[in-house]
Amino acid sequence: MLQQDGHDVVVVGAGIAGLAAAASLVAAGRDTVCLEARERVGGRLLSAAAPPGGGLDLGATWFWDGERRVAELVARLGIDTFEQHLAGDTLVQDATGVRRLSGNLIDAPARRFTPGADTLARALAAELPTDVLRLDSPVTAIHRSATGGLEVHTRNSVLHAEHVIVAVPPALALARIDFGPELPAELVRLARSTPVWMGAVAKVVARYPVAFWRDEGLAGAAASRSGPLQELHDMSGPGGRSAALFGFAAVQAVGPDFEQAVTAQLARLFGPAAAEPETLHVQDWSSEQWTAPPGVHRLADYSLFGHPLYQQPALGGRLHWASTETADQYAGHIEGALTAAERAVTASLTTLLDSDEANACSGLADPA
Length: 368
What we know:
Layout: E1 3-12, H1 16-27, E2 32-35, E3 47-50, E4 54-57, E5 62-63, H2 68-77, E6 81-83, E7 89-94, E8 97-101, E9 111-113, H3 118-127, E10 133-134, E11 141-144, E12 150-153, E13 157-166, H4 170-176, H5 185-193, E14 201-208, H6 212-215, E15 218-224, E16 231-234, E17 243-250, H7 258-270, E18 279-284, E19 319-321, H8 334-365
Parallel strand pairs: 1-2, 1-13, 2-10, 7-15, 13-19
Antiparallel strand pairs: 3-4, 5-9, 6-9, 7-8, 11-12, 12-13, 14-17, 14-18, 15-16, 16-17
Helix pairs in contact: 1-3, 1-8, 4-5
């Protein structure tokens, strides 16, 4: 028998947007549940442990000056950050070989999360009451209910909610969740066409005993037209410990010999020492069923990020979009996810408060 319960707001997804939304709603005193398909929080904030206590980011990595929501969040949570390493020259690789260009022509000033970006998600999740977060709970359907709210279906429960915040990529939501026939056709087309940030790339992180490229005056920054990694950066921790390089590859490049091709490319760029990393992490986001829908590599129109339709609640004003792809500022950044979450929370709280006031007035008008 399906478990049934009612809530003010149901949040779909426990990435940084969903967790931030849930935390804000709980702080506002709203009965909130956050449903996460995975058995972990963080979504595309995922870090591998790296001695002596740092983290190697397999998803989101940086934040930049002016991104006040991230800055305020790390300050409130007490998470240490440090500046991205910039000093040194850039390497450019093409079919003719490798060229060295003066200065770092790829990286911009940015900050990193000392223990790894997923610390933000884990710290937010730890602050939530124990009954708010439900892991291993993929949402299968979201429909209007007969009573005027929304029904959120999982494998073993039906949750009745006044509002739902969808904090997963729109294309993923349309691929995995049955919304019935009630979403406007224009919104359905938009959601199915919107790219998934990180969804069509593999991120590769190679960890080494020392940041030997720095001794050669290299920044760890490189661009390649011959691949498989197309763009590379230094991912070392503070002071160069743990030492690491990382790069992005199109998912079409990932195959049986991908790791060997990567280490061979690293050696061509940075010398023989780069051929033997202590660890090599390959995170193919396109293969993550709770990140990327089928055919994600065909979604390429990034102008759809932050589309005006995502700023408007759907299903009678009760369904709100809150992934980084839907943000009208900083889309594709952690800041974008927090921006979208803030918008969704504000919209849902405003309607809930109006409803509270209407109910209170109705109660006062009732005869004794």
